[in-house]
């Protein structure tokens, strides 16, 4: 049974989440503040965390950072904060996804299931991994990409960008993280670089670059690699 830790201080939302999760046979623990959440995370070892950012005792972003010090469990932020800086801060701290309130229960549960599937399947673990999609195959060790039986030439920058995304399958990678890892810390605001190079990757690898299946844009936040 998948164990979910719900970190939320609004009783009505907690009740709705608990009812819906338990109806779908999830094991549910709840915490109304950050300190309790961190304690339960250690003792109960949740498989996934649903986390509000507006907690009474500490920032939800600090909770994410504390969890990421030792846990790789998916963290889905569920927050009324819609400002892009809040979303980026949470993602940079280590959150896997961000859902804004008010939310649709069906969508939230679908995102939760997707996060659990990604954890169970596991991402590329080492440099010998071969990642296969319907449109192309990536050999991480050889640093090669084949499409339709032919090798696709990627520039070093294109490869670096591809590698960061592929090593985080299904996870939203923030613009700032991509810019820092590919271009360096002094380029964290140069989002135009990402638009140009993502367009190049799509043109080279997507069957229909205007309707990408694998390199997905989350407007204002970042990008996501979907293998299927």
Q: Please state the overall shape, judged from the principal axes of the Cα atoms.
A: globular
Name of the CATH superfamily of the largest domain: Response regulator
Mean pLDDT: 87
Counting helices, strands and paired strands, the structural category is alpha/beta
Question: Using DSSP, what is the number of strands?
Answer: 12
Strand order, main sheet: write it out: 2-1-3-4-5
Strand content: 15-25%
Q: Regions with pLDDT < 50 over 5+ consecutive residues?
A: 123-128
CATH level 1 class label of the largest domain: Alpha Beta
Helix-residue proportion = 40-55%
The value of Rg in angstroms is 19 Å
Roughly how many Å apart are the termini? 25 Å
**Biggest beta sheet attributes:** 5 strands, parallel
- Number of helix segments? 8
Q: How many domain modules?
A: 2
Task: Explain the layout of strands and helices.
Layout: E1 3-7, H1 11-23, E2 27-31, H2 34-44, E3 48-51, H3 60-68, E4 75-79, H4 84-93, E5 97-100, H5 105-121, E6 130-132, E7 137-139, E8 144-147, E9 150-152, H6 156-166, E10 173-174, H7 175-182, H8 191-205, E11 215-218, E12 222-225
Helix pairs in contact: 2-3, 6-8
Keywords: Cytoplasm, DNA-binding, Phosphoprotein, Transcription, Transcription regulation, Two-component regulatory system
Main location: cytoplasm
GO molecular function, one term: cis-regulatory region sequence-specific DNA binding
Could you describe the 3D structure shown?
One of its GO terms (cellular component) is protein-DNA complex. This is Transcriptional regulatory protein KdpE. InterPro entries: CheY-like_superfamily, OmpR/PhoB-type_DNA-bd, Sig_transdc_resp-reg_receiver, WalR-like, WH-like_DNA-bd_sf. With 228 residues, the protein is an alpha/beta fold. The protein folds into two domains: 119 residues, 3-Layer(aba) Sandwich (Rossmann fold), CATH 3.40.50; 96 residues, Winged helix-like DNA-binding domain superfamily/Winged helix DNA-binding domain (Arc Repressor Mutant, subunit A), CATH 1.10.10. 41% of the residues lie in helices and 20% in strands. The chain has eight helices and twelve strands. Helix 2 packs parallel to helix 3. About 3% of the residues have low confidence.
């Amino acid at each position: 049974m998948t164990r979910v830790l719900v970190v939320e201080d609004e009783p009505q939302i907690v009740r709705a989440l608990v009812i819906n999760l338990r109806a779908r046979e999830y094991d549910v623990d709840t915490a109304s503040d950050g300190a309790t959440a961190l304690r339960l995370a250690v003792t109960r070892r949740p498989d996934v965390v649903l986390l509000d950012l507006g907690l009474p005792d500490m920032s939800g972003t600090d909770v994410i950072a504390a969890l990421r010090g030792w846990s790789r469990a998916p963290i889905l932020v569920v927050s009324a904060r819609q400002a892009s800086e809040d979303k980026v801060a949470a993602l940079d701290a280590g959150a896997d996804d961000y859902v804004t309130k008010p939310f649709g229960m069906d969508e939230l549960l679908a995102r939760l299931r997707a996060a659990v599937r990604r954890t169970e399947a596991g991402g590329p673990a080492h440099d010998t991994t071969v990642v296969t999609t319907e449109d192309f195959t990536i050999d991480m060790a050889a640093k090669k990409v084949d499409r339709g039986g032919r090798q696709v030439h990627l520039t070093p920058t294109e490869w670096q960008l591809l590698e960061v995304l592929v090593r985080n399958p299904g996870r939203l990678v923030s613009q700032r993280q991509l810019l820092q890892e590919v271009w360096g810390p002094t380029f964290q605001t140069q989002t135009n670089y990402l638009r140009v190079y993502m367009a190049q990757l799509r043109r080279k690898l997507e069957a229909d670059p205007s309707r990408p299946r694998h390199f997905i844009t989350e407007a204002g936040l970042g990008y996501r690699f979907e293998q299927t």
